[in-house]
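Morning!

This is the sequence you dropped in the shared folder:
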Amino acid sequence: MNEYLKNGIKLISANIVAQVTAFMLVPFIARLYAPEELGILTLFLTLGGILAMLGNGKYEYAIVQAGNRKEAASIFSLCLFINTSLHLLITILLLLAGNELLHLLKNYDAISNYKFYLPLYSFILALAGALTGWFNYHKRFNLTARYNFIQIISNGVFKIAAGLLSMKVTGLVLSNVASHLSGIACAISQRHVLRGIIGTDKKAIKTAAAKYANYPKYSLARTVVNMIATNLPVLILSVYFNMEEIGFISMAITLAFRPLNILSLASNQVLFKKYSEMKNRKIQMWKSMRKLLVKSSAGMAIAFAAIYICLDWLTSIILGSEWAECSTYIKDMYPWLLISVFGASLDFIPDVFQRQKGLMLSEMLLFAGRLAGLVIGISSGDIHTAISVYSWMSFVFIFLQLTWYVRLIRQYDRRISATQPRT
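The structure's back. Tokens below.
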């Protein structure tokens, strides 16, 4: 069996099993927590996720492209240094003026009781990202799969346990922290994989930082902009609407995006390694990519159509009638859902060709379009209008990004073809 297919099966099968299990737990979670509590958790996780994006300076992606093990270890050490320094500064800032900063944004003070969990959560999340880069460099995709599997399953189990103990939002927050720690602990149980992971050669670390400087210069800004853009409904609507409505949106996103994001992440990790090696070996890419796009498009079209028809029924069965509003939000998000599968799976392509600056600019345009959609919706006073326009703006701009990815690959293939001797 093809090596990349085997790696893909390892990642995707583990994620599918975990996701199916997690979905089986969602009905219990929905019945243990109020929409308002899940709304507060969503705001917390969104802010923590943005901070985690800053945690490694985006150098975790450079680990996969390292030329040798020493360079990979140097990059990991660089990630760890940036992550630790950043979160120490965040903790100090929260100690000095945490409540004042949150109070500036109206409903954001709902997470004031949990603010000191933010740097802990985002540090762990960033550390997991660096470890994933290390595992993937060594083609140990089974460890990445193990981390994802344990994290997803334990997150649901911890939330149910906390709900039964009536721990409310505190239990939700601690469940997310504990689940990521559990995933990391299980993934690093094979100690020999971690041998030499910390690079101590300061010169080598500085050299690696300079060599892959495009990641913090362009990929970091692009990823943070994209993260904020993706979570604009939570970040902005939390200011204008109450936490109960944010709770409905968060549950809709959980049902719709969680399985798609895990599938896209698994595909991205395997394809990034595959196409990076194709470029290093000067192998043409378009034939392989075209086949992938055609098969994926056909499969996704059938799946999305079938789910849409049954969506109201599925939502009621999974969550109960009190969460029926979630199906309406998912329908509002449908264009965004469909295009995000491809966008998230293939957003490594500019990194392969060192075109991070171009991707950063495209993400900024996407951000502007999504923001405009929310402004239109908020000005109309209709939250569904805001989500719908936001979704269609996302579809248009992500589609334009995909056409650019195809253009990059076609240009690369023409260059390779021009350098090959004619027969």
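Headline: The first helix runs from residue 3 to 32.

More detail when I'm at my desk.
O.
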